[in-house]
């Protein structure tokens, strides 16, 4: 790395940092996707139950009996919130990918220019 210009070294460090951030965003998005699928499965299970059925909902570490409509509304709100977060993360992911590709291209060009024999 000693023969690589400081500017390129900084760009490489930025690339590594961007790659870590991108991986974090992708992981968060996957977690939210899983939570949405779980909530939708719970909603589907609720459809088969009568309005008078005993339903228990997790509130922290406690199970609390709730009315079907309240649980369904809570699940719908949770899904909506998670889907908004997923959309936000998708936008971040796309922006990071574009930035990563641009920076990667700049580093590649700089390294190739360094390797090319100078014609004088």
Short descriptors:
single chain; 120 residues; mainly alpha; Helix Hairpins; two-stranded antiparallel ribbon; 75% helix; rod-shaped
Give an overview of the whole structure:
The chain has a two-stranded antiparallel sheet. The radius of gyration is 24 Å and the shape is rod-shaped. A hairpin with a 2-residue loop joins strand 1 and strand 2. It contains two helices and two strands; from the N terminus they run αββα. It is mainly α and 120 residues long. The model has no long low-confidence stretch (mean pLDDT 92). The protein has helices spanning 6-47, 68-115, and strands at 55-59, 62-66. The chain has a single domain (6-115), classed as Helix Hairpins, CATH 1.10.287.
Write the layout of secondary structure elements.
Blueprint: H1 6-47, E1 55-59, E2 62-66, H2 68-115
Antiparallel strand pairs: 1-2
Task: Describe the structure concisely.
75% of the residues lie in helices and 8% in strands.
Instruction: Provide the gyration radius in Å.
Output: 24 Å
Helical run tally: 2
Q: First CA to last CA: what distance? A: 26 Å
From the spread of the alpha carbons, the general shape counts as rod-shaped
Estimated helix fraction: over 70%
Number of strands: 2
Catalogue the unreliable spans. none
Average predicted confidence as pLDDT: 92
Strand content: 5-15%
How many separate domains? 1
Main sheet attributes: strand count, strand direction, barrel closure: 2 strands, antiparallel
What would CATH call the class? Answer: Mainly Alpha
CATH topology, which one? Helix Hairpins
Second-tier CATH architecture:
Orthogonal Bundle
Provide the structure class.
mainly alpha
Q: What's the order of the H and E elements?
A: HEEH
Strand order in the largest sheet: 1-2
């Amino acid at each position: 790395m000693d023969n690589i210009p400081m500017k390129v070294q900084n760009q490489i460090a930025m690339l590594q940092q961007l790659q870590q951030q991108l991986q974090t965003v992708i992981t968060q998005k996957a977690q939210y996707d899983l939570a949405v699928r779980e909530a939708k499965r719970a909603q589907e299970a609720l459809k088969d139950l009568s309005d008078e059925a005993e339903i228990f909902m997790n509130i922290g570490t406690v199970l609390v009996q709730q009315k079907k409509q309240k649980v369904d509304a809570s699940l719908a709100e949770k899904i909506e919130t998670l889907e908004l977060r997923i959309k936000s993360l998708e936008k971040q992911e796309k922006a990071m990918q574009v930035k990563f590709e641009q920076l990667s291209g700049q580093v590649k060009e700089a390294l190739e220019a360094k390797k090319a024999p100078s014609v004088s």
